[in-house]
Specification:
The complex is a heterodimer of chains A (about 170) and B (about 70). Chain A contains five helices and seven strands; from the N terminus they run βαβββααβαβαβ. Chain A is α/β, with parallel strands linked by helices and about 170 residues long. The mean pLDDT of chain A is about 90. The longest helix of chain B is centred in the middle third of the chain and has 12 residues. The chains are: A alpha/beta (about 170), B alpha+beta (about 70). The interface between A and B is medium-sized, with 13 and 15 residues.
Chain lengths: ~170, ~70
């Protein structure tokens, strides 16, 4: 991105959640912002680090504690009772359903969005502390990840026009 | 004239693909984008306003939206 193209606006996003549904807001916002010439840094901490794993096939959603989830099914909207999540394999099945729905509706996959983010020079910073905490090594994570701590985030956030906590 | 078919794609793909297509154009050239996402109407206005590109025309025909964008 040349200096002429950036309009000097910066955005910083802290990504704290690692489920399939929560993966969308940060990546949609970061890619769209980058498309609109904003300089974006995403700081991934705690469960957000799941989104920087090499393999994103494990991203899931749960029917537990998601009272706002209503899936379009058989012409109706079905709410998923908490109890459903107690059945083995239910989270995996629901996640598969969600991914199929996403594909059917022409919505981008998280893999595609992450690649678009990387192509648009969005900075992806992984929280060092979280990596240590959950014992994840560089071999688990994508190569484009940089490593930083809270002070790295702070410096970036102080210089940003938009700061989001997702 | 460059064309981009973004029909069947949902937000933010029409904008992302448009940005990519615009990169290959020279200043003054136009890109015609077709989309079916109704949210794209406002999005393309915002995109052009923010990036300084010109939205020459925005039209709709039976659920398909057509945007003509001139690169600044």
């Amino acid at each position: 991105m040349s200096a002429a193209e950036t309009n000097n606006k910066k955005m910083s996003i802290i990504v704290t959640k690692g489920t399939l549904d929560w993966a969308y807001p940060p990546f949609i916002l970061s890619t769209t912002a980058a498309a609109m010439d904003v300089e974006v840094t995403m700081f991934f901490t705690f469960y957000g680090l799941q989104l920087l794993k090499k393999d994103l096939g494990h991203l899931q959603i749960s029917t537990l504690g998601n009272p706002a989830m209503e899936m379009p099914l058989m012409g109706m909207h079905m709410k998923m009772p908490n109890l459903v999540s107690a059945f083995p394999g239910m989270d995996a099945a629901c996640s598969r359903m969600m991914k199929n729905l996403i594909k059917k509706k022409g919505v981008a996959s998280i893999e595609d969005l992450r690649e678009a983010a990387i192509d648009s020079d969005v900075k992806l910073i992984g929280c060092q502390m979280t990596l240590d905490l959950f014992e994840w090594g560089p071999e688990d994570m994508i190569d484009e990840m940089e490593i930083g701590g809270a002070a790295t985030y702070m410096e970036n956030a102080l210089a940003s026009d938009i700061n989001l906590f997702i | 004239m460059a064309e981009l078919d973004a029909r069947g794609l949902n937000c933010p793909l029409p904008i992302l693909k448009t940005k990519k297509a615009l990169k290959d154009l020279a200043a003054g050239e136009t890109l015609t984008v077709t989309a079916t996402d109704p949210g794209s109407v406002k999005d393309f206005e915002s995109f052009c306003r923010t990036t300084g590109n010109t939205l020459v025309e925005s039209s709709e025909d039976g659920g398909t939206f057509t945007y003509i964008i001139k690169k600044s």
